[in-house]
Amino acid sequence: MANQEDPRVMRTRQLIRGAFRDLLQRKGFETITIKDIAQKATVNRATFYAHFEDKFALLDEITEQAFHERLPEQVANAQEFTDEICNQLILMTHQYIVDFYRICRMDSKSMATLVDDKIKKMLQQTIERIFMKGDTSHGADRRHIKVMAAMTGASIYSAAHYWLTVEDTNRVEVLVDIVRPYVMNGLRL
Asked: Where would a tag sit more exposed on the chain, N or C end, judged by fewer CB atoms within 10 A?
C-alpha cells in the first residue's frame, strides 16, 4: 500500500472520499459502483483499489473520519466521565446522526446498519477510554468497564437516533435533559 503521508496519496484519497460523498447524496449506496466512484474522482479503478478494498471499506473510513472530526477536544482529552462530557457526547452523537442521514440517502438498509454499527462502536470506545482513565470504574475490572461503556454508548446512541426519527430534532436540549440523568444515575449505582 502507498505511503499514507505522501501528499499525492492524501489528495487521491480525498478525491475518492469526496466523490463517494457526492454520489451518496444522489444515489443509493447499493447502486453506487466502484466505476462510478472512480469516474467521479477522476481516477481509474486500479487507483481506487490501491487505496480501498471496496466501497464498504471506504464507507467505514468516511464514517470514522467524520466521527473523529466531530469529537469535541474536551471529550477526547477527558480524564473522567462527567455530566458535561455526557452532555457533549449526547449532542455530538445526535448531530452526527442528523448530519449523516441528511447528507446521505439512507434508503439502503445495509448502509444504515453499517453506519449505525460503526458509530455505536466508536462511541463505546470513546467512553471506554474515558472510564479507563477516570474514577468511574470504582475498581471494576476491564470486562466490567467494557460492559458499562457498551451500555452507556448504547443508551446515548439509541436516544439520539430515536430523537432524530420520532421527536423534534430542533429541541436537543430536551434530549440532553432526558438522557444525561438516566446515564449518570446508572453509572453511580
From this structure: C
* pLDDT of 108 above 70: no
- Residue numbers of the domain that contains 162: 61-188
Same domain flag for 107 and 184 = yes
Banded pLDDT at 107 (limits 50, 70, 90):
low
Residue-level pLDDT at 129: 94
In a domain, 2, yes or no: no
